[in-house]
Amino acid sequence: MSVTVSATLVIKSSAFQDNEFISSKYTCDGVNINPDISIDEIPKNTKSLAIIVDDPDAPNGTFCHWVMWDIAPKSIIKEDSAPGTQGRNGFGENKYNGPCPPIGKHHYHFKVYALDTVLSSLPPSTDKIELEKAMKDHIMAWGELIGLYKR
């Protein structure tokens, strides 16, 4: 059964504004930790949250920097934290790897999804594509925050 996404999450961070530059602290040029992410307007029947951070400006196509699911429905993901199960990013690692563009200014999409289920059966080897397939019929709401970075 397909769920119609009729709600939008409001995603913010104290580290950067939407479509503004991300502090180097949260990149490969800094401490390389995730920024805090605040999530508002979470539907009341949400069972879990998921997050995908990717860069559509990467030279070889969209590159995934972070994938995590089974996050308890709460209004904040704290800086330098992993409150859910982290899957495999484009670096082949199960963690946040911050912006690190080889050339030019890139856009980093921090996408958060409110799900009507938990995805506890997914193994840590799950990547962005597999997570998107698993979430497909379970997304109640989603939102994104876009950060920029240039080295």
From TrEMBL:
The keyword Plastid does not apply. PANTHER family: PEBP (PHOSPHATIDYLETHANOLAMINE-BINDING PROTEIN) FAMILY PROTEIN, UNCHARACTERIZED PROTEIN YBCL-RELATED. InterPro entries: PEBP, PEBP-like_sf, YbhB_YbcL/LppC-like. It holds the Pfam family PBP. It comes from Flavobacterium xylosi. One of its GO terms (molecular function) is protein kinase inhibitor activity. This is YbhB/YbcL family Raf kinase inhibitor-like protein. Keywords: Protein kinase inhibitor.
